[in-house]
Amino acid sequence: MKRAEVIELFSRLRELDPHPTTELAYTTPFELLVAVVLSAQATDVGVNKATRKLYPVANTPQAILALGEEGLKRYISTIGLFNAKAKNVIALCRLLIEQHDGEVPRTREALEALPGVGRKTANVVLNTAFGVPTIAVDTHIFRVSNRTGLAPGKDVRAVEDKLEKVVPAEFKQDAHHWLILHGRYVCKARKPDCPHCVIRDLCRYRDKTAE
């Protein structure tokens, strides 16, 4: 995709949604971090349903640690892989208290050293909580980037590296949110809604839907 087309693509997405953000509910960097860890192989709606009950009771590392692993499980048992996630969140809370004074670190290295936190989670936290122009690549962004021809790649890291190169600086802060929302609601996995897509004419996808 040519640079002029990339600029046009993001200009249209920005016009639709000038101030995009995550659909995960949170009020602090710690709440966002926990929500993103819980969201692996789960929906934002499902995570929000669980944290809506959890956070009024415990929304700090100290409070969640006080709940304990079994106590935490009672709040997140509706989320997939909740046993492993509870273990990671408890370990994450302990590490935040021991090494970061209970605060969420602002560097990728420190974030990725936390249990249950990989590159994608670190990118989401850096971008959404701290305003760093990172681009976290999930299944939606991977699909949109490949289908449209914006940033084709064989794996998520290849797509991320390509996006870092092709996305103009003025769009980089919000690119993650625009692409994920586009993939979630328009460029869907099984049947993309091409007739209602604002970037249809820029897209390289050969099997566009007609209705």
From TrEMBL:
Binds 1 [4Fe-4S] cluster. Coiled coil: none annotated. [4Fe-4S] cluster binds at C187, C194, C197, C203. InterPro entries: DNA_glycosylase, Endonuclease-III-like_CS2, Endonuclease3_FeS-loop_motif, HhH-GPD_domain, HhH_base_excis_C, HhH_motif, Nth. The keyword Transferase does not apply. One of its GO terms (biological process) is base-excision repair, AP site formation. Keywords: 4Fe-4S, DNA damage, DNA repair, DNA-binding, Endonuclease, Glycosidase, Hydrolase, Iron, Iron-sulfur, Lyase, Metal-binding, Nuclease. GO terms for molecular function: 4 iron, 4 sulfur cluster binding; class I DNA-(apurinic or apyrimidinic site) endonuclease activity; DNA binding; DNA N-glycosylase activity; metal ion binding. It comes from the Bacteria. Signal peptide: none annotated. Residues 38-185 form the HhH-GPD domain. Its EC number is 4.2.99.18. Belongs to the Nth/MutY family. HAMAP family: Nth (MF_00942). DNA repair enzyme that has both DNA N-glycosylase activity and AP-lyase activity. The DNA N-glycosylase activity releases various damaged pyrimidines from DNA by cleaving the N-glycosidic bond, leaving an AP (apurinic/apyrimidinic) site. The AP-lyase activity cleaves the phosphodiester bond 3' to the AP site by a beta-elimination, leaving a 3'-terminal unsaturated sugar and a product with a terminal 5'-phosphate. This is Endonuclease III. It comes from Rhodanobacter spathiphylli B39. The lineage of its organism: Bacteria, Pseudomonadati, Pseudomonadota, Gammaproteobacteria, Lysobacterales. The gene is nth.
